[in-house]
Predict the 3D structure of the following.
Amino acid sequence: MRRLRFGTAAACVIAVSLIGAAGVAQRTEAFTREEQNRIRAGELVARNVTRREGRFAMRGGTSWQLVHAPVDQVWAAVTDVRAYPHLIPALERARLVSQDGDERVVHMQHRYSFASASYFARVRLEPERHHMSFTLDRTRPHDLRAGRGFITLSSYEDDNTIVTWGVLADIGGGVVLDVFGPLVDDWLLKVPLCVRNHVEPGRHGC
């Protein structure tokens, strides 16, 4: 496979501008050398975050993945609600409830073993930036206590794309979190890898 160049300046721009603008993660330093090497090698790079925001116990963070496909092709995938069960771990169904220009409401239904959760997300598309942000719609029924996040695509060298994903959510407590907590932490930041596997030919699903 052709070796991609990954300059420190490019890494810094992506890490600082995209994480900081979304208000999702706490860490805004540039990629470490190890992280740059892992991205070049096609690995998922993730930085976990846990923190309290008032009465909410938020967990999540930010993750990055190199995808060997043009940014417009990747954008078409991440904005296709029908594809979301392929892009988001343990998502059983996704349904577009309404759309007004670049504003959407999407219903999400997660299921794993005996645990399930559903909620509505308010989604804002910014096609010119290849940026999409979302927040939990608290005016509708929701099994999550809180949640927000973003996905941003950056064109990178000869029709490649870097997918940046950030999310913070309070999924509640109790036995479900006790049993599935480690899986949830992994799933929350796995989306860019799932995007790659969905877009690149010959990849297995997430």
Summary: The mean pLDDT is 85. Strands lie at 45-53, 56-67, 91-100, 103-112, 115-126, 131-136, 146-156, 160-170. The radius of gyration is 16 Å.
